[in-house]
Amino acid sequence: MRPLTEQLLEHSRGLQEGSLLTAGGLRRFGERGAISKALSRLAQRGELHRIDHGIYVRPIPTRFGPRTPSMESVVGSLAALRGEEIASHGAVSANRLALTTQVPIRAIFLTSGRSRSLQLGKHSLELRHAPAWQFTQAGRLSGEVVRALAWLGPAESARVLPFLGRRLPLAEREALVEAAPLLPTWLAKLLILSLSTS
What we know:
The protein folds into two domains: 4-57, Winged helix-like DNA-binding domain superfamily/Winged helix DNA-binding domain (Arc Repressor Mutant, subunit A), CATH 1.10.10.10; 84-195, no CATH class. 45% of the residues lie in helices and 15% in strands. The chain has helices at residues 4-13, 32-44, 71-82, 90-96, 141-152, 154-167, 170-179, 185-195; strands at 20-21, 49-52, 55-57, 86-88, 107-111, 116-120, 123-129. The strands form two sheets. It has a four-stranded mixed beta sheet. A hairpin with a 2-residue loop joins strand 6 (116-120) and strand 7. Helix 5 (141-152) crosses helix 7 and helix 6 runs parallel beside helix 8 (185-195). The radius of gyration is 21 Å and the shape is elongated.
């Protein structure tokens, strides 16, 4: 019978980029304690990256050597594993919407779970707890707008909203007006005032 480390490594090669490996999720390969030790050994050998206590991910092989999986793929897997909402930080959303030229130096995401720092290969990844309203319209352009405006604050949001409103598709403008009751008062008022008339 092949060593447990080799069985786990072979299994990891069949997974999509950013898929997470945990002892609890690999119970079909044996006893939990043995799986934990095998995963730890694979991480020590550089075959896996340990991103958090008991959570591992496989580097992606390329012709130039292994690379770290994309942060987005890992964050998506982590959200599914932990049952939490994870979304881009407001500064990233503002940059994507061309509302700022600033690009965050550190990788920061918002989470409905607890705040924590993770290590993804040589890169640090910070998860910051955010209130539920910041995950309104998750997975939509309107959700990016909510997080961008929250990061910009009231004065800057009031300045950019008329221009942003003209660029947004009607469905996204309507979604934002519909979501307004879930948002802080200052943001709800700005959205209704700007988007109902644009």
